[in-house]
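queue> pop job 88
queue> type: inverse folding (structure -> sequence)
queue> payload:
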């Protein structure tokens, strides 16, 4: 048996080194013409690499059990080990996932389980060139970028290989008929229900009338897209390596982002964001919003992404920050001389002599005093400085946004800021070394803070 299909499979394996470092292969066998052709090739041609067949009974169609038995029987006939997973896709599919998406997730989880069970390195799926064309247009319709244009790669870093990717569907069917390879047919593939089937049965046949070599053209374009995608992903790998081991996983240095090419920036942002505990990746629009923030934003500016995350422009890094379930509570309370217990803070107010060591903790004035969180309109004139908004002071001193809620203000009886934590007294409340003044000590109450966070996360 020396058909054209055998030659294409062999060419693909050799040209793309699909068996490089291979310790064994899990063959995904549905029972269709493609997977039976792949299994038949392994039985006849692959002599020095161990392999097993893996079949998933999705429990979706009436024929599912019969197809499982068909695969078992064929494997038994040729003494091929067959592993089967019985899945109840309709009964276990979580909300928010399509049946196709969830079934794929279940399949690959099972294939990887079998790969680990046998200590194998590869999983072979029977995707053909027509499948690649369908995936290309499906990705385009869904609004995918260059990665979607790359369609189905011939191999992946996790050991998944596609030996039939050079073969067209009609050639595979003729191959099965000529060589007596049995297979089952999924009749739902011919029903124009769902986007993929509409493309397969209605759109692509018309496009092939316009260009009979459509699949070859798409394959060529996808190959170029795969080359580009591989190149840029390697640039991202190099960038992440250059940032060093001390980089926080949610941060990217601004000096890199403002000097790199946009294709690298966009992929780097998506890679970093996907490494966080998120349910979804960055969309095209979200990625462009972040790039616009990098080009036009000011320190502490942010854009909302998804899953409660913001991209925040810091002084030296761009950070992905998750908004807390229970934001920090605003502080507003009158304080008296002595110890004052607030929600999240302990505040001690006492009379003291001003020294060079405590001058930034002292201020003058007549009670009553109020201690409170910063308001957007707050301005203060520190000693020897021009009047500025408190926000501008934070930016000048590079105070991280996560630390700003603890930078409390002491206000006078008219609610005018006269003291800013860690900065000192404002105009009208200046002190001199040797004077007697009010000394304030602000300590964050960790117990209260933890209790508040616990309440917010229940």
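queue> result:
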């Amino acid at each position: 048996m020396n058909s054209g299909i055998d030659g294409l499979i062999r060419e693909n394996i050799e040209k793309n080194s699909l068996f490089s470092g291979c310790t064994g292969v899990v063959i995904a066998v549905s029972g269709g013409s493609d997977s039976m052709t792949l299994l038949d090739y392994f039985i006849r041609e692959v002599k020095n690499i161990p392999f097993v067949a893996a079949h998933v009974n999705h429990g979706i169609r009436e024929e599912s059990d019969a197809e499982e038995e068909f695969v078992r029987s064929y494997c038994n006939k040729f003494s091929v080990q067959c592993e089967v997973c019985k899945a109840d896709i309709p009964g276990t599919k979580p909300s928010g996932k399509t049946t196709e998406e969830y079934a794929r997730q279940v399949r690959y989880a099972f294939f990887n389980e079998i790969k680990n069970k046998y200590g194998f390195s590869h999983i072979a799926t029977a995707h053909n060139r027509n499948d690649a064309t369908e995936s290309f247009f499906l990705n385009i319709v869904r609004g995918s970028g260059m990665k979607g244009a790359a369609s189905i790669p011939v191999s992946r870093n996790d050991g998944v290989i596609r030996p039939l990717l050079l073969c067209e569907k009609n050639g595979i069917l003729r191959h099965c008929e000529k060589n007596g390879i049995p297979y089952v047919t999924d009749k739902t593939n011919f029903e124009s229900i769902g986007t993929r089937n509409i493309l397969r049965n209605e759109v692509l046949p018309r496009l092939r009338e316009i260009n009979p070599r459509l699949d070859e053209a798409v394959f060529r374009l996808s190959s170029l897209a795969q080359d580009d995608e591989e190149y840029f992903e390697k640039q991202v790998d190099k960038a992440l390596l250059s940032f060093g081991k001390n980089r926080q996983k949610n941060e990217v240095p601004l000096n890199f982002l403002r000097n790199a090419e946009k294709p690298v920036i966009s992929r780097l942002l998506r890679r970093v964001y996907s490494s966080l505990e998120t349910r979804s990746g960055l969309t095209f629009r979200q990625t462009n919003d972040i790039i616009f923030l990098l080009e036009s934003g000011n320190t502490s500016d942010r854009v909302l992404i998804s899953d409660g995350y913001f991209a925040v422009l810091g002084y030296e890094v761009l950070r992905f920050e998750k908004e807390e379930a229970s934001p920090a509570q605003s502080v507003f309370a009158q304080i008296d001389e002595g110890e004052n217990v607030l929600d999240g803070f302990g505040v001690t107010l006492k009379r003291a002599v001003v020294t060079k060591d405590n001058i930034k903790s002292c201020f003058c004035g007549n009670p009553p005093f109020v201690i409170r969180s910063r308001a957007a309109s707050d301005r203060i004139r520190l000693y020897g400085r021009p009047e500025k908004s408190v926000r501008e002071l934070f930016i000048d001193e590079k105070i991280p946004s996560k630390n700003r809620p603890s930078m409390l203000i002491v206000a006078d009886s008219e609610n005018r800021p006269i003291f800013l934590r860690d900065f000192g007294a404002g105009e009208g409340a200046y002190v001199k070394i040797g004077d007697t003044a009010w000394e304030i000590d602000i300590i964050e109450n960790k117990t209260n803070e933890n209790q508040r966070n616990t309440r917010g996360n229940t």
